[in-house]
Specification:
Blueprint: H1 3-13, H2 17-36, E1 38-40, E2 50-52, H3 55-65, H4 67-84, H5 93-110, H6 117-144, H7 150-174, H8 176-185
């Protein structure tokens, strides 16, 4: 399926009331996970690495409903998480854009596929390369760590987030039977 067709089909998904209800529930799950399922790693000298489970509803939305729905859930989830529980570092639109891109990447790579390991690996590598490691690290450096070299932030984040990506892929793949059942009844 073509790149643009996935966006068109995903935007049409939003016309279905059941899809809107499911997206609202995934958004609520994203907000709850964003507030309570974040783990900062204190053994790293810079507070630039945070392990989070927010990828779960974003990947599910990407697989079931496509890039538009997943991007909206990821972006709104970040904003609502901050509004409900502000952080010491404050709200950052750059980080929100990274979350939106993460949702779009998951949607483009997983929507209307069989959710094979290959698809998940492509989605996660694209997310790591474009969002999690590069753009997020760049935003963190510009806003909070001007004195720290970019490569150092990138290496600290990569040392933790690349191995965690394997866990993320496994979690999403293990959810495939449940997601396939949901996919059959979504029409």
């Amino acid at each position: 399926m073509s790149f643009f067709k996935k966006f068109a089909d995903s935007s049409k998904e939003l016309k279905n009331v059941r899809v809107l209800a499911a997206c609202a529930m995934l958004l609520a799950l994203r907000v709850v996970l964003g507030m309570f399922a974040n783990f900062s790693l204190n053994f790293i000298p810079l507070p630039v690495v945070k392990i989070s489970l927010t990828f779960i509803p974003i990947a599910i939305a990407g697989y079931l409903y496509g890039p538009v729905c997943a991007g909206v859930i990821a972006g709104l989830g970040d904003i609502l998480s901050y509004l409900l529980q502000p952080t010491a570092l404050g709200f950052n639109p750059g980080i929100t854009v990274c979350y939106i891109l993460e949702g779009v990447i998951y949607g483009v790579c997983l929507y209307q596929t069989e959710l094979k390991i290959k698809d998940l690996v492509i989605a996660k590598v694209a997310d790591l390369a474009l969002c999690t490691l590069t753009l997020n690290s760049l935003v963190l450096k510009i806003l909070f760590f001007q004195d720290v070299p970019f490569w150092q932030i990138l290496l600290w984040r990569a040392a933790v987030l690349v191995p965690f990506a394997v866990i993320e892929i496994a979690v999403i793949r293990l959810a495939k039977p449940l997601l396939d059942r949901i996919k059959k009844i979504k029409v």
